[in-house]
């Protein structure tokens, strides 16, 4: 994923007037997120104001706040789509394409490596926001972290059922270790422009496979 995609609301199909209203909401919301993505790509999230987003999206400031209480909320929504939505997609693809857990982990981490190596200022800003949200002391942050853990629990639980994941530790613990290690690499990547993210991701994958994957059922 090389850029975050505009987010939209689902249309209500129960009645024609409501459907038109929802389509209008979706269109306006899309214009706001597209404008934000365009500006964030150029100058980063911190360098863009709500007024600039509204001007590019051709919406009133009041309209913006009908959808987002603040620019922070808009940034959080985009960061969640990039980090959490993308992770779920990668796990789905890995489960579909490969049978062995080692191959699945290699596939997921290979795409993470490719993405991190190619991400620009926008993606870095959004991932930074997502990591900050996870570290925040609130219920929403806990839900986000559980979502990440649960995605890897899905992958590992399927491997356990197939007999190629170690039974030495619980699936919940193993998933937490995978997510924690991945976040540690991402934090280093965010804060050090010279950080060798590609070899670190490859090393991390080999390390996790040696720890998590069982040679025999």
Average per-residue pLDDT, rounded, comes to 83
Please state the structural category.
Answer: mainly alpha
Q: How large is the share of residues in beta strands?
A: under 5%
Based on the structure, what is the oligomeric state of the protein chains? Answer: single chain
Helical residues, percent? over 70%
N-to-C CA distance:
35 Å
Order of helices and strands: HHHHHHHHH
The whole-angstrom Rg is 20 Å
Shape, per Cα inertia axes: elongated
Low-confidence stretches: 1-16
Q: Please describe the biggest sheet, giving its number of strands, its sense, and whether it closes into a barrel.
A: none
State the total count of DSSP E strands.
0
Q: What is the count of helical runs?
A: 9
Protein architecture, described:
The protein has 217 residues and is mainly α. Helices cover 76% and strands 0% of the residues. It contains 9 helices and no strands. The chain is elongated, with a radius of gyration of 20 Å. The model is unreliable at 1-16 (pLDDT under 50).
Tags for this model:
76% helix; 217 residues; 0% strand; mainly alpha; single chain; 9 helices
Quick recap of the structure?
The chain has 217 residues and is an all-alpha fold. Helices cover 76% and strands 0% of the residues.
SSE order and pairing:
Layout lengths: L15 H28 L6 H8 L3 H7 L3 H27 L3 H18 L2 H15 L3 H24 L8 H21 L5 H16 L5
